[in-house]
UniProtKB/TrEMBL annotation:
Keywords: DNA-binding, Metal-binding, Transcription, Transcription regulation, Zinc, Zinc-finger. Residues 14-69 form the BED-type domain. InterPro entries: hAT-like_transposase_RNase-H, RNaseH-like_sf, Znf_BED, ZnF_BED_domain_contain, Znf_C2H2_sf. Pfam families: hAT-like_RNase-H (PF14372), zf-BED (PF02892). GO terms for molecular function: DNA binding; zinc ion binding. PANTHER family: ZINC FINGER BED DOMAIN-CONTAINING PROTEIN 4 (PTHR46481), ZINC FINGER BED DOMAIN-CONTAINING PROTEIN RICESLEEPER 2-LIKE (PTHR46481:SF11). This is BED-type domain-containing protein. Signal peptide: none annotated.
Amino acid sequence: MKISEEAVIVNSSRLKSVVWNDFDRVKKGETFAAICRHCKRILSGSSTSGTSHLRNHLIRCRRRSNNDITQLLTRGKKKQNTLTLTNFSYNQTPVKNELVTVASMNYEQGPKVGNINTGCFNFDHRRSQLDLTRMIIMHGYPLGMVEDIGFKTFVRNLQPLFELMTVSGVEADCMEIYKKEKQRVYEELDKMPGKVSLSADKWATDGETEYLCLIAHYIDDSWKLKKKVLNFLAIDRSQAEDMLSELIMSSLRDWDIDRKLFSLTIDNRTTYDKIVCKIRDQLSQHRFLMCEGQLFDVRCAASTVKLLVQDVLETSREITTKVRETVLYVKSSHDTQEKFEEIVQLVGINCQKHLSLDNPFQWNSTYIMLEAALEYKEAFLQLQENDPGFSMCPSSLYWDRLRAISIILKFFHEVSNVFVGNKHITANSYFAEICDIHLQLIEWCQKSDDFISSLALKLKSKFDEYWKKCSLIMAIAAILDPRFKMKLVEYYYPQIYGDGAPECIDIVSNCMKALYNGHAIYSPLAAHCQSAASVSSGSVVKDRLTGFDKYLHETSLSQNTNSDLDKQEEFKNTETVNSLHEAASDVMV
């Protein structure tokens, strides 16, 4: 429709819709038209056409400001079913005095016009882009989803004003968010008064590329255990120890925590021992490490248990294979399973455990399979007599060894649950479990059964490597638990070392004193101590150790606590153990 100069603008008091604030209604002859004041597009202005098409145009009009778009949608309807959401910033904390009221629609079994109330809503395009990027990061969605046709259609219908992003745009926003988050973590680590423990885990991809994931573990001012991923370092299998150690050191310097590092936990591999030694030597040169680095090299207890279990399963591979084939045969057909269930009732087995095949990559499932098979031993033997096709039933010797293996796996299964069952387990929880493993291996080594004793000797040889590296730091952590103090060490060491226990207890006690002194020198009370040291430094050290010895020999136990970290709260209540409070925050991670 063309509008000539003869067209006349109609001003009528009957034009009550808000859309006429953005349209001119003109008349030529008997025809009415509506001309957009922003883009000059001509639409029908007839009273029989209504105003819905005009509102839809204004929503999509690129030349029109969107500051007052909600007036086009509300149309004076009664406010109801509104939902108020708090606007969130990057760190997911609420922004004060910033509320967004979004549309709320009621749906029933069939189509129904929804009641919409948008309130005062200003569409923030940049915020929506960053929200989309954060969603992709949080849920691990592929970046290319923003270019999928279905996603584009959904977004256009949901918010026509949103400009669709490209993959490169999402990548840029990911880096922007990463830099802001990295700066926030950097500032948190910088302000933290205590030490940081570092773990390095190797990640492998489908290709040849491997990564070293560096994670910082620390306790913040409110005694909350924190864990932050610092870096994913691409590594090459051909890289020498010098290159890998320098790669880790470079990351520590980048985060400025090389001076704060307390310990390093890395993969249980012989090749990584040299890496730890090189990093420890570099840090020791600058006197960054406590106790001359004795507590620096820490190995993962859960990984050590897993390695021991792998040796058990490797030794019993033939037995495990037999049991797996046996269970598979029973479950191979419905008829066989029914026959087996009849035999179970016939021999009088009343067991709540169900036969199940294991996942060879999850040793816990193998233990569950073996344990259940033992309960149905008599049924398997009876099935072998009644079914000529069932020829894989374990022999009498295998059943005896299977029982021994099941007992060993049950022990490690219970210990493993302590290590991995709690997401926030602290170091003081490990000592008793590690000592129990040590004592149990000693007992198994003394068994008259050659199969058990030879297997136990193999396990103990591997465990001794872990004990040599980690027993000291575990003992220190137990001492700093006010429930135990020295009592737990004094209980276990005589059982482990016999007549050599007093000497080993002295080693732990001396290391604890050295750790205490190291924190006392750099504690907030150090200024006061240093002023007294100008008179007599020797007497200050003596007085400090006197208070510490009193703490070590207290016998009262504190049981009214809520969590492992909460037990350390009593350290905060007295200045005489201020340094122990600081030491505990470093050791407990």
